[in-house]
Design goal:
0% of the residues lie in helices and 59% in strands. The chain is mainly beta.
Length: 58
């Protein structure tokens, strides 16, 4: 499956699937990937989604 607005596409091999609470933890190996455009990544943090903030210069 390829999502139309995805920044990258990854082809992976699944090595293990472990139930964790009401979710599944999938462990795998990335076999190949491609970048579609240059943009900041979307990160899952503290039960929400954020983009990375630039680190200020000293």
């Amino acid at each position: 499956m390829v999502l139309p607005d995805a920044l990258v596409a990854l082809a992976c091999t699944t090595h293990a699937v472990t139930p964790v609470a009401d979710q599944l933890l999938v462990v795998g190996e990335v076999r190949r990937g491609s970048a579609h455009r240059d943009a900041p990544p979307l990160l899952r943090w503290n039960r929400g989604f954020v983009t990375g903030a630039p680190i200020p210069a000293e």
